[in-house]
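Section 3.1 - Work completed
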Amino acid sequence: MPIIANDILKMSRENVLNLYEPDQQHSRHITHLVLSMFDGWSELHGLRKNYRRLLETAALLHDIGITINFYSHARHSAYMILNAKLFGLTHKEQVITAAIAGWHNGVSKNYFKDRFYKELLSDANWKTINKLALLLALAESLDYTETSQIHVIEPGINKKTATLKLYAQGIPSIEMHQIQEHLSWFKKTFGVELKVQLATAAEE
């Protein structure tokens, strides 16, 4: 019997992307940035590689709620992910993925914990969701203007400090301002400061 899809999750989330027609260039760029953070800060977050595919799915679909309402799109994205035909995920994994996307503008525990599925997730699950949602929020801030101005990032760890070097076309002043909004969240979540550095032209 022929294999219909080598990666059923990849195919199903592409179907969701194409169905709701968000800004796919932005979504894919955000996904590239956030996976770079996940890989570069593996020592910092300490999460299993299985969570990488949940983060990838959340990043690709984080803006689909815009089709319902722009200003509250994060929670709408979460609802749509919860109810999407995402084959290849368990129900619990789909809830986690939805929560990651739903928090990309900031933590909103009440929205999820008041729902009937709250018993699926442990306190440890919520801590994991917080870490991954923070990474997604950072990535979102790095393409706030949706122009892909910041094209490469280099996450690192230097003693007791996390570092993030940005390579950009021009001066991404709006993105540099936006990422500052998440520094306290980063310190609270990981227990270290995040130092953001814009690479000079000579370094590119």
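Second construct:
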Amino acid sequence: MNIVISDDYQDCVRHLAAFDLLKGHDVTIYNDTLTDLDALVARFQPAEALVLIRERTPITAELLERLPNLKVISQTGGGAAHVDLDACRRRGITVMTGRGSPYAAAELTWGLILSAMRHLPQEVANLKAGGWQRTLGTGLKGRTLGIFGYGKIGSLVARYGKAFEMDVLVWGREGTRQRALEDGLRVAQSQEDLFQSADVLSLHLRLNSDTRGIVTAEHLALMKPEALLVNTSRAPLVASGALFNALKAGRPGRAAVDVFEEEPAPHDPLLTLPNCVATPHLGYVEQDGYELYFGDAFTNLIAFINGEPVASLTA
């Protein structure tokens, strides 16, 4: 089968153990993301199968109409919000997903918290430039860690917070709040209370129509001047432009982000701010996680090729 894998930024897929599953097939791997429709059509037109790396390339109805050879899409991870499933159903294209893992994202979240609170990027740069101890960091013990969304990743970050002897405060949907109470954690009185109380506030919500823009400029303005907002989930959880303006105004005083409104994001205005630590969507980009994601994606694809029953989002 003619298989196309796009958006392999690190050129790492061919080096995974899971890649052996595709032996005997015609596999083409691209290491960049295209946004122009005609260029995407030219790249994907030969493909009978697409293997998608998370949400890096949207698969729209307009694109699908120009891919007559496409039979199947095998998605890494468990989400497919970037794929027009209705259009796939109309064209008889099977769409399959796999599993995700919360650990890499939770670990990166904690790395960003420590980096921002202790000014690690600045101090590394200072040291390499010949400087010594230019900043005064902020410790975590005894401070309030706000968790907005207590799912798989949020609950792990809460556990890390407890290990650092932080006071964990949770907010989210009713089920979220109930699980937090059962785990012995405090629940905020409201979303506003969470933003007012947290010294570190980490977002762990799925992006959907209910959560898009759920963090407004008014919520950010409630945060303490010395507080840190962390977003390793999805940028559109925060109203467009609100975080940039809030950081310029000093509430919150700092942010650490791994996600952007448009990705790749080499020119995002957040990158110009000295009080924002940023990484290029690395939350899930980790060796064990990639073996899991691609192991599932390739196993599902081989099952489809062999005519075996598969779980499909378009069935």
